[in-house]
Amino acid sequence: MIRVENLSKIYDRNPVLRSVSFNVDKGSVTGFIGPNGAGKTTTIKIISGLLRKTSGKVEVLGEDPWNNPRVYERMSVIFTTIYHPKEVKVEEYLRDLGKVYGKDYRDLMAEFDLTHYGRSKLSQLSSGIAQRVQLVAALIRDPLLIVADEPTANLDPSARLEFYDVVKRLNSRGVTFFISSHILSELEKVVTHVVFINQGRISYSGKINEALDVQGNLIYVLVNDVDKALKIIGGTVEGGFIKVIGNVRDIVERLDEEGVQIISIRRSSLDEVFKKFSGV
Ligand SMILES: Nc1ncnc2c1ncn2[C@@H]1O[C@H](COP(=O)(O)OP(=O)(O)OP(=O)(O)O)[C@@H](O)[C@H]1O
């Protein structure tokens, strides 16, 4: 869906993307994760055809997005806030888009519980409803791919959960997502793949399970015999749990072989992996 190879962007002699490479697989929900200023928005603008790259190769749905506006027929982009005339009413806005793309917007308005807001101006909407309008607007063109830059940044916790429920629903219907966010606890429940970026460089790109399970991640284990387990796997005790660096399967096998019973085991959260890959 998206192929980025050795992408660089220099702003006024300041390199903000340095040989960035990653892929977004068809059918995935790929999280794009990095601290402030890492280069997420710059990358998303280049992928969306809004900003020119300095060098490297970018392909979205097989085309270079800068030279080929046709990409927009099957890709939608969502930002933190709506960039549209604020005085326009919800129904007018969606109806006009429906005309452009030859799609009946009313079913989508009903599916997303927006019928009631049809006469509200875009400027009068709460952030959660405005984001729902953006999603419906994105869906009107039947996209294969939705690229979203911090889509939940302005939303309260329940609107964020609602947003990610919709992402899951649409993904199960075949829509691929590339979503940048800082709110990792929520991303963790929905993403299948992650791309970590830090200071304009990719520090990890791959399946989330592999990111959470690589050697060097923290594992927390609760066992029936702490002293024996410490001798086998090492680590330190924290809040009753043994905290150890390693790989879940490895630790389970070693404890099992020695007859130590595991009551609970959990690996690092995406938050902890993020800290590791971003060096914070
Ligand atoms: N138009 C611009 N001109 C010059 N420098 C810019 C411009 N836009 C962004 N930058 C710089 O590029 C770097 C990357 O910014 P970018 O907005 O892509 O990061 P980000 O990961 O999206 O961060 P945030 O999460 O804070 O939005 C930053 O150092 C930023 O100051």
Summarize the topology.
Layout: E1 2-11, E2 14-24, E3 29-33, H1 40-47, E4 55-60, E5 75-78, H2 90-101, H3 105-111, H4 127-139, E6 145-149, H5 157-172, E7 176-180, H6 184-190, E8 193-198, E9 201-207, H7 208-213, E10 217-223, H8 226-233, E11 236-238, E12 241-246, H9 248-257, E13 262-267, H10 270-278
Parallel strand pairs: 3-7, 3-8, 5-6, 6-7
Antiparallel strand pairs: 1-2, 1-4, 8-9, 10-12, 10-13, 11-12
Bound molecules: adenosine-5'-triphosphate (ATP).
Residues 11-12, 16, 34, 36-42 line the site of adenosine-5'-triphosphate (ATP).
Topology-level CATH name of the largest domain = Rossmann fold
Tell me the number of structural domains: 2
Question: How large is the share of residues in beta strands?
Answer: 25-35%
Hetero groups bound? adenosine-5'-triphosphate
User: Quick one: CATH class of the largest domain?
Assistant: Alpha Beta
Report the biggest beta sheet as strand number plus sense, adding barrel if it closes: 6 strands, mixed
The CATH architecture category of the largest domain equals 3-Layer(aba) Sandwich
Shape: globular
Uncertain spans, ≥5 residues at pLDDT below 50? none
State the distance separating the first and last CA atoms.
31 Å
Helix run count = 10
- Determine the structural class based on helices, strands and strand pairing: alpha/beta
Strand tally, please? Answer: 13
Cross-sheet strand order for the largest sheet: 5-6-7-3-8-9
Listing every helix as H and every strand as E from the N terminus to the C terminus, the arrangement reads EEEHEEHHHEHEHEEHEHEEHEH
